Amino acid sequence: MGGMPLNDMPWWRWRTQVRSALHMLSDPAFQQECWVPGLDGYGDITDAVYRLVEDTWLDNWSAEKYVGSIFRDSGEAALVDVAVLRVLRIMHQVGADAPVSAYLAHHAWPEAVRAAREAHLRMAVSDGDDPDTRPRSLEDIRILTSPS
Question: Which side of the chain, N or C, has fewer Cβ within a 10 Å radius?
Answer without folding.
Answer: C
